[in-house]
Amino acid sequence: MVQYVGVHDLIRLIRLQGIETVLRELAEYIEDDFRRWPAFDKRPRLASHSEHGAIELMPTSDDALYSFKYVNGHPGNTRDGLQTVIAFGMLSDVRTGYPLILSEMTLLTALRTAATSAVAARYLARADSRVLAIIGAGAQSEFQATAFKTLLGIDTVRIYDTDPDATQKFCDNMKNSGLSITIAASSQEAVEGADIITTITADKQMATILSDNMIGAGVHINAVGGDCPGKTELQADILTRGRVFVEYTEQTRLEGELQQMPEDFQVTELWEIIAGNKKGRRSARDITIFDSVGFATEDFSALRYLRDKVSGTSFCKTLDLLANPEDPRNLFGLLNSSVPDEECSFE
Amino acid sequence: MVQYVGVHDLIRLIRLQGIETVLRELAEYIEDDFRRWPAFDKRPRLASHSEHGAIELMPTSDDALYSFKYVNGHPGNTRDGLQTVIAFGMLSDVRTGYPLILSEMTLLTALRTAATSAVAARYLARADSRVLAIIGAGAQSEFQATAFKTLLGIDTVRIYDTDPDATQKFCDNMKNSGLSITIAASSQEAVEGADIITTITADKQMATILSDNMIGAGVHINAVGGDCPGKTELQADILTRGRVFVEYTEQTRLEGELQQMPEDFQVTELWEIIAGNKKGRRSARDITIFDSVGFATEDFSALRYLRDKVSGTSFCKTLDLLANPEDPRNLFGLLNSSVPDEECSFE
């Protein structure tokens, strides 16, 4: 049997543990896996594009575990009241190839994206950072605010979105968070005095959410929204002025802010900072940019965390996903075997 | 919600419908999809190799539907009483990226492999074929015998396996099939007088299950067992003497009997025969070889069939795999929402 964590059970888990605990624990798994980066089999995601959007498979593995995530990106879905992005994933045993756990990953991806942002910021932002600007109050915004509060000690969030309803939704969700929230009238106003800036807008186009003149010395930019071909958020000048950090260079050149830069533009992979091979922030005046597009190892970490957390508890069910005859060669025998003949009709 | 067909429900479906009906209906879907081959987005499978085996993702899509299959291949698994190959898969809506149905695919793959073999043989074997030789009495053998009986009117099967227990298992499973079964003492004896030969052995090596002198004029060879790098079953001379048909050339050159042949060795893709673009068998004396490795479109067909067959019936359950907040941007709101607070404890 394969363990299964559905939306309902994951929500129960997060509510019972508290989202801050979940983010803190998840961040440890993500950090641990970045630290042992060379142990992973890495490749760009496998995307299937249509006029409506993309469906992607994101596999990775180490010596013991294999994971993949199924995730779509359909910008027009919100028109029909559907999610732009939904996801699920699976963790398997490399030794046998058998699946271990299947999980919803729409919520889990939102958590791991925010946790990854916060892990990166711990190495790249100034240690005295207290004010976070968030540009874009979409589905990821509250996860970002909560992760930065939990993992970095952010106490103030300045939020901006072109849609006042989205901003209101953000404020409603954050009202008991303990964060001081300010609604800004523009991106410019949001970033004034911010130590860290998260850009997480949804438009699928080359946009300029942040221009160079808005970025002061010492700021850390967490660029999350530019995450697919044809979608960027930062003016290219910012990337030249600051130092750029990425997850997996090959993928970020295709999908991240790096799309705007020449192919030999110098970047540093985040894992090298976490592993201690290279230095992150060098001075209080550095501008650091985490050009984040999301990578398969982060999903691996999230599934590994989830499995350790829920195995054997009431937070997972079991699925009969695997045909397992007593004699492995006698698959056909299952059709004659003693499966109970329930009352059933076929219509 | 996503529809889910587990092992238990699939077995119930097959038992209630009868495996012959299922194979016949499935074969129609497979044939229809081969006929519209150019409509599919095709690519080689994405494999992750380890010392223990391989884990593969096999995606494909047309304008309306996307499918992928997860499948492993771990030759050492039988030692531990596990299946060498287990699989599951999913069909999704290209327009929204949302999953439609998740299914076990260990049994479903066995069915689609046999149905594909029979579909190919209908175009490539002599119409008066009545005797089938099967070399290898493993997990796929009974499915092959049943598909050839149902779809081609085979009435006699000559079976050979190096392991008498496997042969016995085959005979036990086939005892009420209506087929006349003969146990052969060697491959040579099995193929004597056979119209069609299925090779479906399990050894992961370059083997010679069939040598050139065993193959008479007019025979159709259904080579199913040579299906991964380093594994073949036929002596290369046979491929030169006969005409070779494949599913997807690029993949078969890596995984099929074609591994033994030069890169420019002439083959014909099966879909061209089914679509009527090219001729299959040209005379009663032709030797035809279907060098089958299994392709993603066959899984697509199987999932499409299953969905049409079980949607809305008791043969599928539903899974809460997709987080679906009322306001798509308010994913975070799910964590504060009215999910019932059941009695639960976290240990």
Automatic annotation (TrEMBL), chains A, B:
InterPro entries associated with the record = NAD(P)-bd_dom_sf, ODC_Mu_crystall, ODC_N
| Protein origin, superkingdom | Bacteria
| NCBIfam families reported for this sequence | PRK07589.1
Under PANTHER family, the record lists:
KETIMINE REDUCTASE MU-CRYSTALLIN (PTHR13812:SF19)
Protein name per the record:
Ornithine cyclodeaminase
Q: Tell me the lineage of the source organism.
A: Bacteria, Pseudomonadati, Pseudomonadota, Alphaproteobacteria, Acetobacterales
